[in-house]
Amino acid sequence: MRRADAGALAEGLGWRLARVGIAIAVLLLAFAVVRVWDFTIPRVGAHHYQAVFLANGQTWFGHYRDRIGPYAAMENVYYVQTKPSPDTDVPPTSQLIKRGNELHAPDPQVLIAKTAILFVEDLRDDSPIAKFMDQQR
User: Is the pTM for the entire model greater than 0.70?
Assistant: First the structure.
């Protein structure tokens, strides 16, 4: 191999390595910018329990998992059941009911159409509902 050919080959290899280095630097810079400036959608599910507010007026509490596709999943689901008092002077009572204890004995995992979900909130650990669900486990 002649020196001129070897020099051209080395120069071409140097430019390729420089391009790869620039590409890696751009990717690292883009990663750093995304980490510093939070361009991502806030992640629901960072806490142990979530409240899912449905279009029909119900609110379900439990472990929410967003999934690819038209359905989200929930496990260990609880809902509030309000019972009116026979006495009109006494306010109705509300209690938290674990889903799955109904007469038809449904599976504890629920798939919810995403079109039926208004919004989802994380419950803090000191939430009375979260404390109740922890006690029931």
Answer: no
For 35, the enclosing helix (H) or strand (E) is: helix 3-36
Are 35 and 68 found together in one domain? no
pLDDT in tens, 84-127: 888 888 888 888 888 887 788 888 789 999 999 999 999 998 99
CA distance 55 to 36: 35
**Domain encompassing residue 26:** 1-40
Same-domain check for residues 31 and 59: no
Phi, psi of 24 (to 5 degrees): -65, -40
Cβ pair 79, 61 in contact under 8 A: yes
Q: Tell me: do 112 and 58 sit in the same domain.
A: yes
Question: Total domain count for the chain?
Answer: 2
The β-bridge relationship of strands 110-113 and 117-123 is unpaired
CA angle 67-72-76, nearest 5°?
A: 115
Residue (of 92, 46, 36, 90) closest to 66 by Cα position: 46
> pLDDT digit string (tens) for 1-16?
555 555 555 566 677 8
